[in-house]
Specification:
InterPro entries: DNA_glyclase_Znf_dom_DNA_BS, FPG_cat, FPG_N, H2TH_FPG, Ribosomal_uS13-like_H2TH, Znf_DNA_glyclase/AP_lyase, Znf_FPG/IleRS. It is built from eight helices and ten strands. The protein has a four-stranded antiparallel β-sheet, with no helix packed on it. The protein has a four-stranded antiparallel β-sheet with strand order 2-3-4-8, with helices on one face. 38% of the residues are buried. It is elongated. The two termini are 30 Å apart. It folds into two domains: 135 residues, Alpha-Beta Barrel (N-terminal domain of MutM-like DNA repair proteins); 135 residues, Helicase, Ruva Protein, domain 3 (Orthogonal Bundle), CATH 1.10.8.50. By secondary structure, it is α+β, with helices and mostly antiparallel strands.
């Protein structure tokens, strides 16, 4: 799933390539992605793109007082085409959900596609006058890169949960998902199952500092990348996430995994849990 660094990079890519362009035809290949109908998506046609922004893990472009907002969910992505097909896509065929044709000031006619891989379709698109009309944006907590250390400490004090759960709770803190929470906790040498109540003031400072460092490093690595290369850049920077069975790059121990019904997370026992192996939920064992 695209998280704060990748969505920030996609917003930057659109600011570089789409600002000033006029929106042309919009092809909707999957009606299910549209979560709003007033104003209709066709109201964006003929309007100049004036902004591109990130709201947590939501991506938005502004045109003529309207916002096209998308949440890419687990399998979604934005793909840019300098020479897109002029033929309307066939509904329900392939990963394409929505295509936006553009006319640039230089006379070019690119397009960007919102696509979604897999069979579980969760990609969502809204057309709104104010981003706060999108329920997921209205519920967002402070952005992970904007929250101050005192604010962060106060948020954790109000949330009684495991650290992994707290970091991915978008109503608590916006922008971090499964992958970067794994990386933050590994870098900070904190167990995913440690609780917010167990943190000392020093641990809170460490977690806040590490969170910013990991995210800012990922943003820096993603800046300037072509939209098509961002996924690969994300994978290449991971130390434990999605690296089950591989050696930890810090200590050499084997990276372990805890799995649930539809998700999993990774950690290093030596770096994070004092050598203790956390029980894999697929085996229905208790974690003490």
């Amino acid at each position: 799933m695209p998280e704060l660094p990748e969505v920030e990079a996609l917003a930057g890519f659109l600011r570089e390539h789409a600002l000033g362009a006029v929106i042309g035809r919009i092809d909707v290949a999957a009606l299910s992605v549209l979560k709003t109908f007033d104003p209709p998506v066709t109201d964006l046609q003929g309007k100049d793109i004036t902004a591109a922004a990130r709201f947590g893990k939501h991506l938005g472009i502004e045109a003529g007082g309207l916002w096209l907002i998308t949440h890419l969910s687990r399998g979604g992505w934005l793909r840019w085409a300098d020479t897109p097909s002029s033929a309307p896509p066939k509904p329900g065929k392939g990963p394409l959900a929505l295509r936006v044709h553009l006319f640039t000031p230089e006379g070019l006619t690119p397009a960007f596609d919102l696509t979604e891989a897999g069979t579980r379709k969760r990609l969502a698109v809204w057309v709104v006058r104010d981003p706060q009309e999108v329920p997921g944006i209205a519920r967002l907590g402070p952005d992970a890169l904007a929250v101050t250390e005192p604010e962060f400490a106060e948020l954790l004090a109000r949330k009684s949960s495991r650290l992994k759960t707290a970091l991915v709770d978008q109503q608590l803190l916006a922008g971090i998902g499964n992958a970067y929470s794994d990386e933050i906790l590994h870098t900070a040498k904190l167990s995913p199952f440690a609780t917010t109540a167990s943190l000392t003031p020093e641990s809170v400072t460490l977690l806040w500092t590490t969170m910013r460092s990991v995210l800012l490093d990922a943003v820096a690595r993603s800046e300037g990348q072509d939209a098509a290369r961002l996924k690969g850049e994300k994978r290449s920077g991971m130390r434990v996430h999605a690296r089950t069975g591989m050696p930890c790059p810090v200590c050499g121990d084997t990276v372990r995994e805890v799995s649930y019904v539809d998700r999993s997370f990774q950690y290093c026992p030596t770096c994070q849990t004092g050598g203790r192996i956390l029980a894999d939920r697929r085996l229905s064992r208790l974690v003490k």
